[in-house]
Amino acid sequence: MVAVQFSAPESPELHTSRLSNFKGVDFANNATQVSTSRSPDAQNIISDLAGKPVKRTGYQTVANFGSRINGIYRLATEDVEKFLVHAGTNLYEWERVNGIFAANGTQIYTGMNNQRSTAFQHDKKLYLLDGKTYLVYGEFDNSFAVKKVSDVAKVPTCYLAMKPDGTNAKTLEDVNILTPKRTYSYLVTSEDASKTEFHLSTEDLKLKGDAVTARKRKSNGDWVNMVETTDFTVNRTKGMITFKTAPGATPSTGVDNVEITFAADTEDNDLINKCSIATMFGYNGATDRVFVSGNPMAKNFHYWSDINDPTYFPGFNYAYLGQDSSAIVGYSHVGNALAVHKEDNEQDQTIFLVTGSYDSANGYQFAISGSVAGVGAISKYSFCRLGIEPMFLSRRGVYAVTTQYMTAERYAQNRSWYVDPKLTKEADLSEAVAIEYNGYYYLAVNNHVYVADSRNKTYEKNAPQSEFQYEWYYLTNIDARVWWEYDGRLYFGDGDGKVKVFALDTENTATHPAYNDDGAPIHAYWNTPIFSFDTLYRKKTLRNFHLMLSPYRRSSVEVFYRVKGGLRSVKSSTMDIWDFNDIDFNRLAFTTDDSPMVIATNTKAKKFELIQFKIENKVAGEGFGFYEMEVNYVLASKYKG
User: What is the C-alpha to C-alpha distance for residues 480 and 247, in angstroms, rounded to an integer?
Assistant: First the structure.
């Protein structure tokens, strides 16, 4: 009898693929070409301070103003802190007591434009532009109130040393385009001492119906006020004032002794009122003037105030930039220059650089000193600085104004390559609104938020004209019409009139969970790229999938395989930690281990060519995050097509 020997077949070699060092989303590449550290499809996952992917925190409604939110503002001085909300056509004072905001506000003004407004603080007052009326909020006569800036605007003294016939005028100040009012000052010599008719110009100057005021200097040098009708009459067609008694000659040689203040009927005083864009800028990079634009009737013009006076816009303080076919959209500060961004009209420069100069003959001037190669802006609400970079939104994505290291030339470089295919297809990009918060650039449009992380940058070979790209994240279910940051927290106002605040992850407890949106669950998930495991001619069999999760008091995960086009749930797991300070009797946990947790799926996937993994958490009140993934598989038969 011959002994027959049998040899057991060798076990297939087990291969391992590990995913770690996760970054952001990549909507630019096909899911088979995305880096293993990024996701071709993820939502409501963001990086924490260590760069690890975690579920975003949720938000809670803190106030309801009944109409869409157009602006949230703070006025802060040494003595007082005030909060204002522009909702619909109304402006409200919003009270905060013992660290808690009121559920609504007190209306202090109505008749505002029902569109997003902008504001800036100067000298203990808050100035607001809404495209309809330039307003100021602050303390007037020992009480806080809102006024039209035109009602409190500076009345300039335009001419000195005028003769009663309107000649010999010496220019002192330019007219203020915020108001038709101005003052003319006269020097009455002995030869004109008997004159009673005082002309405002050598030609007819029509006056508005506003009351004209005047005053004359007495022999002791004091001024005495004079009243229309009582002391003088006015010919508003010819611009002439007739005193009932001649004011007489000046009591001091060379010193003006008559002043007349009137409202000229010559200009459209809505040039500033209809602006909706504002920034602070000045000579040599100072911030002592207000630059404004956005008037639809003068869309390529911008205007600037006198130094340290937002109520005075001299008539010659304006410039037009480029063609009138494209509007100015916003401003960025680039070194000592002001970058003025325009719409893209495919033929004009889109970014103009304005710098200040000074000489004794002409005073301060602000003229175009150059332009920046790049793209036009599309949203006036997208401008903010991320780190040292001025960011803005164009039709082609988010761009930054940068300086080329070798030539010192400035360029607009794309920073959103990874999300541009999705972002640029959003409707109404002109309505997108941005804010910088904790080193992130949040850009909201259509209930979606695209988030750039300034701490995580990478060079992308497919975007060679940019020095680097930020890592991006994609959030949903956030109707942010306006953003606002206060006291280290991020707030937003929505289209229904509600103001909401995001929770901090440190606040998460069983009774006050940080991971829900007004009580509703946050649907967070992360899809991996589609894997061939570098082998197309062999089928594979998945043995298991391991996932290392971040520790939370309350957390869970559902794991899916996507094979041959079908998505299959293969594992649901709860990961809770016992905490005596946070006990939920409906969900008791018996482990106190707060180190990262590993779960494993032993569900196999057989004879596939391509596979994708999805992890998901959509339970209200639960945190969620992950560190690593590991896939174990063996090669199977050849793929024959």
Answer: 63
In the chain, how long is the greatest CA-to-CA distance? 152
Which H or E element spans position 152? helix 149-152
Contact between 92 and 106 (Cβ < 8 Å): yes
CB 394 within 8 A of CB 432: no
> E strands along 118-179, which residues?
118-122, 125-129, 134-140, 143-148, 157-162, 170-171
Closest by Cα among 415, 306, 321 to 368: 321
Contact 390, 334 (CB under 8 A): yes
Higher pLDDT, 407 or 133: 133
Query: Above pLDDT 70, what percent of the chain?
Result: 93
Query: 3-state DSSP call for residue 429?
Result: helix
Contacts 24+ apart (CB under 8 A), 419-425: 419/25, 419/27, 419/28, 419/450, 419/472, 419/474, 420/27, 420/28, 420/396, 421/27, 421/28, 422/27, 422/474, 423/27, 423/397, 423/398, 423/450, 424/395, 424/396, 424/397
224: exposed, middle or buried (Cβ count in 10 Å: 0-12, 13-18, 19+): exposed
Pairing status of strand 157-162 against strand 181-186: parallel
* First CA to last CA distance, the chain: 47
| pLDDT score of 9 more than 80 | no
DSSP secondary structure of 362-428? TEEEEEEEEEEBS-----TT--EEETTEEEEEETTEEEEEEE-TTT--EEEEE--TTTHHHHTTSS-
Instruction: Characterize 360-376 residue by residue with b for buried, 16 or more Cβ atoms within 10 angstroms of its Cβ, and e for exposed.
Output: eeeebebeeeebbebbb
3-state secondary structure 250-280: CCCCCCCCEEEEEEECCCCCCCCCCCCEEEE
With beta carbons less than 8 A apart as the criterion, state whether 549 and 627 touch: yes
Residue 16 has pLDDT above 90, yes or no: yes
Per the confidence metrics, is the pTM higher than 0.85?
Answer: yes
Q: According to the per-residue pLDDT averaged within each range, which of 111-120, 334-343, 396-405, 603-612 is highest?
A: 111-120
Neighbour-count burial of 149, counting CB atoms closer than 10 A to its CB (0-12 exposed, 13-18 middle, 19+ buried): buried
d(CA 426, CA 434) in angstroms, rounded, equals 15
* Cβ atoms of 382 and 482 closer than 8 Å: no
- Element spanning 235, H or E: strand 232-235
